[in-house]
Amino acid sequence: MPKPKLKKIPVRDVRLGMYIEAFCGSWMDHPFWRSKFVITDAHELHLVHECAITEVLIDVSLGLDVLAPPATAEAAGQPQTPAVPQPPPVPDTEAATMRAEYQRAAAICKAATGAVRHMFAEVRMGRAIDQEVARQVAEEITDSVLRNGGALISLARLKTADGYTYMHSVAVCALMVALARQLGLSEAETRAAGFAGLMHDLGKADVPLEMLNKPGRLTEDEFAQVRLHPEHGHRRLLAAGVDDPIALDVCLHHHERIDGKGYPKQLAGEAISRMARMGAVCDVYDAITSNRPYKEGWDPAESLAKMAQWTNGHLDPAIFQALVRSLGIYPTGSLVRLSNGKLALVVEQSGASLLKPIVKTVYSTLSHERVVPQRIDLSAPGNRLQIEKRENPKDWQIPDLDALWMDELAQP
Length: 412
Fold this sequence. Notes:
Blueprint: E1 6-10, E2 19-23, E3 37-38, H1 42-50, E4 55-59, H2 98-124, H3 131-156, H4 164-182, H5 187-199, H6 209-212, H7 220-226, H8 229-239, H9 245-253, H10 274-289, H11 300-308, H12 317-327, E5 335-338, E6 342-348, E7 358-364, E8 369-370, E9 375-377, E10 387-390, H13 401-410
Antiparallel strand pairs: 1-4, 2-3, 2-4, 5-6, 5-10, 6-7, 7-8, 7-9
Helix pairs in contact: 2-3, 2-4, 3-4, 3-5, 4-5, 4-10, 4-12, 5-9, 8-9, 9-10, 10-11
């Protein structure tokens, strides 16, 4: 194999036949899941030229070189324009508020979902995934959750039925990070948990799309094929050179059950690693709160209530309780009834009490009409209102609940 000959060039100089070694910038600024490939068609070339990346690294031992050395003002004998001073970057350590993180989390969620979609497409075409890009995606999600977990986790719950498979990987990544932090895991373990969450369902790329998107109940034969996805994913990760034991373990064992009735190995109890048990809890929570081709998702608070009933055999009780502490007893997006008779939407966790989140009123059960939304911190000093119970949104015909809490997060 020829020795690599790397050269950094402006994006404008990229042409057909060049071998892209790397994009010089964030994975969020270009549409390619792969970072090492030959530009083979005009569409790919157009995407490179139009992306936000300004420079790429090419390997001229594996593809074409530039047609001519890039022209510079100095070489042409023209005066160079002095560089415009840039403001210093905002320190990464600065705590982000919920609203500030919302915009960043929305961009990360969109880009990460697109990256996972590309990853699955690569697998379906028989190509190995790009581990380096996958880790970059997981790192961006992890950093967002560590800054403020509520923003991205809440956004990732909103899925279209046909996009479920891709955003589910993003959501489980975020949930794994939040859960790992709640359990007191080290930063290295927390980041490993996030990467494992992103990769956990890779094997579904080997499941026919008509099965994944089937609006009705799967037949026994179809379900048997779907149940093979942990083993498919494990094999795909090994083929991509992923030797991370946590990612491999969670991918293979996130459908095991505490009572030994899971798959693919029918492991039980402590034979299932803690990370795999965490993966199972996060996978179930996101699955039942999401709209699927065959059913609508449950309300977040209702989902936690359902999951509490499954801790006697399916899920690890201690890890489930940690998830509840992480999300709140009334997670963001839940509909609750207040002691004054008004229905309110949970828009943020207060941090002071699991039972006293920040809510926005939306409806009066006394007058049976919509109300002017009012934001209330139930943990604030002097506040006398409290949550009486959770409510099922379907019982109240309020179709725009998700839009209401997203609008709250987006307010300046």
